[in-house]
Amino acid sequence: MPSDVFAADPFLPDLYRVGKVRRELADAVTLELEPQSGPRPDFRPGQFNMLYAFGVGEVAISMSASARLGTGFVHTVRNAGAVSGALARLEPGATLGVRGPFGTGWPVVKAEGRDVLIVAGGLGLAPLRPAIQDVLAHRERYGRVTILVGCRSPHDILYQHDLEEWRQRLDVTVEVTVDHAGTDWHGDVGFVTTLIPRSPFDPDKTVAMVCGPEVMMRFAASALLKAGVPASEIHLSMERNMKCAIGLCGHCQFGPTFVCKDGPVFPLDRISGLLAVQEI
Amino acid sequence: MSIETMDRILASQAFFADFPAEFVELLAGCARNQHFKAGEYLIREGDPADRFFLVRQGKVALEITAPARAPVIVTTLGEGEIVGVSWLIPPYRAEFDARAVEPVRAIGIDAKCLRGKCEADHHLGYEMMKRFLPVMVKRLHATRLQILDVYGQP
Q1: What pTM, to 2 d.p., does this model score?
Q2: Which residues of this UniProt protein bind [2Fe-2S] cluster (chain A) (predicted)?
């Protein structure tokens, strides 16, 4: 945890104003947030903020655009409950509270010189997008870069404009698969794990970053292990109900770790024994 | 210019890695190269399952047609993958439509011919089963995950 985060009271949110709002999916929007005073703190891909909808509550949401790309924060929020629903309904000019950034990030720097394999499921592409943007900003520092995306149907593909832009580059492999589709869909159909054996990466020199529903991550991790990627090089972003975000309250306890403080990004070898435990 | 023989083509496919040479020869006797234009069907649901394919290039969609509904794609298959497993299971009828989404180059295997050879030589039958069973299990697992609808609202 960067110490500068706690220079001020870690429970006191800073005020941010909603700039642009982009509707991504029927139930998800991307909010661009600008600080109302002072500069936005720096952050790493994979970290999260606690977003506070006044009078409703606070929820942990990962940053969904690289720190290099603006002066504020970008968050993609899915309307999945009272707080996220209130956030997803915010309009340009609205004010909200922001605490953060918190947590660990994706190993973007550690992955330099290696192949990078991104595996995203559903809204899991949002926390991975800053990592992809940073890798592509310094493309020459990496080996093969492969982005695999799985989602429910062709109508549920997040960031279609980005995927199209990345696909048009000649130095990135982008594959999208959906769980079901009509015959007007010309892409792949099947669970995202089916893309892994078809993808071009050298398992001995690959860093994999995986984000999505936990079941999807478990099976993606299993497919990556089967493909020969070591557990220490497979990184997952875990999600638990977070409250304090600084490892005090215990709401997000995940075995011997706290997701807010020790995660959300964990190497698989640190948590593999916990993924199939029902009570955790 | 050298002409690639079917045995060599088959032996170079990952699906038949470590397949004994004498069985590759037997298999080659039932195999031929086939091409399909985008939109053409490799297999139609309900037809006798007397052929299966190993895709060399292109993409194939497995589809189900429900009455009064547009067909639904349940999975897509690409290079190195098998299209058609019903040839192994009585009553040997195709369960899905298999449509070329884009131009497809495949090795078509005469499954009736191969079934006969498998019956005559159970070692060959066992080698085929060892390759087809993992394909079927993998697809069953993937289908279970699709059914879970993991990307739906939490």
Answers
A1: 0.90
A2: 244, 249, 252, 260
- Residue A190 and residue B75: Cβ atoms within 8 Å? yes
Closest CA to A139 of A106, A110, A172, A168: A172
Distance of CA A198 to the CA centre of its chain: 23
User: How far does B70 lie from chain A, in Å, by closest CA?
Assistant: 7
The C-alpha atoms of residue B12 and residue A273 are separated, in whole angstroms, by 39
Residues of B in contact with A150 (CB under 8 A): 151
The answer to whether the annotation marks A260 as part of a ligand binding site is yes
Query: Contact at 8 Å (CB) between A116 and A109?
Result: no
Which residue out of A83, A173, A180, A196 would a mutagenesis test of the B interface target, given it has the greatest number of B Cβ atoms within 10 Å?
Answer: A180
* Chain A residues touching B152 at Cβ < 8 A: 152
User: Between the CA of residue A172 and those of A19, A112, A118, A168, B55, what are the distances in Å?
Assistant: 31, 15, 11, 8, 24
Considering only CB atoms, B71 lies closest to which of A177, A183, A193, namely A183
Residues of B with Cβ-Cβ distance to A219 under 8 angstroms: 141, 145
CB contact under 8 A, B76 and A122: no
Domains of chain A, with CATH numbers?
3-102 (2.40.30.10), 115-236 (3.40.50.80)
Residue range A37-74, pLDDT digits in tens = 989 999 999 999 999 999 999 999 999 999 999 999 99
- Give per-residue pLDDT as tens, B1-54: 556 788 889 989 999 888 898 999 999 999 999 999 999 999 999 999 999 999
Between CA A235 and CA A223 the distance in angstroms is 13
CA distance B101 to chain A (A): 6
The reply to whether A151 sits in an annotated binding site is: no
Q: What is the ipTM metric for this complex?
A: 0.86
- Kindly list the structural domains of chain B, giving each domain's residue range(s) and its CATH number in brackets, ordered by start: 6-143 (2.60.120.10)
Residue A207, Ramachandran bin (φ over 0: left; ψ between -120 and 50: alpha; else beta): beta
